[in-house]
Amino acid sequence: MRLNRLTKLAAACAAAVLALGACTANDEGSEESAGALPVPGGEISVAEAGVVDSFNPQTAAGNTDINRKLAYATHSGFNYVDNNLEIVPLEQFGSYEQVSEDPLTVKYTVNEGVAWSDGAPVGADDMMLAWAAASGRFDDEVLAADGTPISGTRYFDYAGSTEALGLTGLPEIGDDNRSVTFTYSQPYADWETAFGSLSDSSGIAVPAHIVAQGAGLADEKELTELIRETPGGDPLNPAPVNPELRAVADYWNTAFSAQTLPEDPALYLSNGPFIVSAIDPGVSLTLVRNEDYTWGAEPELDEISVRFLQDPAAQTAALKDGTVDIVSPQPDGGTLPDLEALEALGNVNLHWGNQLAYDHLDLTFDGVFESDDVREAFLKTVPRQAIVDATVQRLQPGAEPLDSQIFLTDQAGYEESAAENGSEEFAAVDVEGARELLDGEAPAVRVLYDRDNAYRAEAFRLIRDSAAEAGFDVVDGGLPAGEWAARLGTGTYDAVIFGWTASGVGVAGVPQIFATGAASNYNGFSSPEADELMADLVAETDTRGREELQADIDRLIWEAHYGLPLYQLPGLQASADTVEGVEYMPNSTGLWWNVWEWRVLR
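The structure corresponding to this sequence follows.
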């Protein structure tokens, strides 16, 4: 049975995929396609589970897998991460160099001729805006111990961590407005992906000249001057809101949100190989070749249609009937046999491996879960092994719950951290222990999750039924695929089931999620001790030192009863044998990592 072959391959890959790259479950190309030749141009269709709702994936609201994939196909940058998890410079776009080690100084230069699709050059003004958003330089927001804002202002709603570029002073502009130079106040180990990396969406997300106009400024030069002249924020001495900077940040935060194609093309400009040409709301999106793009590998395809199909069975059926050519369904016991049957006919190539992704249950630190006893009680009722049995174990026999908030199972450091972080306390359901902590109370808990995601819907059902035995009244707060993400961090729920996906390089994702007040810290977790360790982490260059710091942070998160990791996600992707160049990638970019190499065979 082919399932056994795939399952064994997955186990063999598991120990290597994060460090060494990806595994695929097939020889690339079947006998039927072996004699086919690539055809210039052409079009294909790709099925994706998410629904595009923003052209700026750097905002907290727009930071979803599908929005990042769209940005990846429509933007360029200084480097990207390949499927061996190696950083690859994009020298046709520009260059970056470490000009000094002490102090750490990095210069970024965009090549002449690189432009947005409206003809405006990409340059220092765009990089200054990107730096302003990602550095947190102007914020003087003061947070309470639980992470709640109590005074001051936060301008840009940046989804990532401001830890890296927050270490830099005002950039120096040069090379006829095509370069910026960052000087760091202390060492930063991940400097190569801190800015301008296509894979992290950490570079130039939106054009400065469009933001300037939208905010009421004359042009991008006036915007850069505003950035240069505005003092940095000081939480110890909050300043009145700067109205011009507030207008710029508000436009950056909200203007690029869209589930339909904006009437103004300025809101979806491209500086990469493809550009959006149409959106059918909630149904599909069409990408066409950016004819002006000459500063990177020329894409093989003329057009890519992206269909929004949450249901794995619908993705598989669409691949079978030929209405899509590439799918990335959530793998389960029903999806895989159908795909295997297609592969056996020589119609499909399967791409398989672990993902750099995991699903988790997070509890908010206010409302019903302001009490540590109530948080601990709820976590004691979560049947993690039953959830694994009902979800990922169908493809990974013997799978166990993930026992770290920081490490994935096949990363160095996982076993040691899992043994010391306190996760064993939640290895099994303890309803009696939960009842003792509740002491007769019957708290109501609203749980947010993507109800169209089969794994998360099943996890919710099992959590609800188990928690009820201890006295909890668990309220179904599930929302459709296109709606749930917008509720993150809004205070409209008590717990949430969702997933994180890593880039595969660096440690910037740790403070992005767990630092006090971080944009992706949706549940209000705050630990001064953990914050100090995270500040040390981003500066640590020694691999073993990083593992030890992450293990200490992991322990603090577990001690706070933050929530529970549930399982690491397996990855299963498939492509029709009429498409060449598709290769597995374990991080959030997925198969899109080399979209410019996809080509049609005839």
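The two ends are 31 Å apart (CA to CA).
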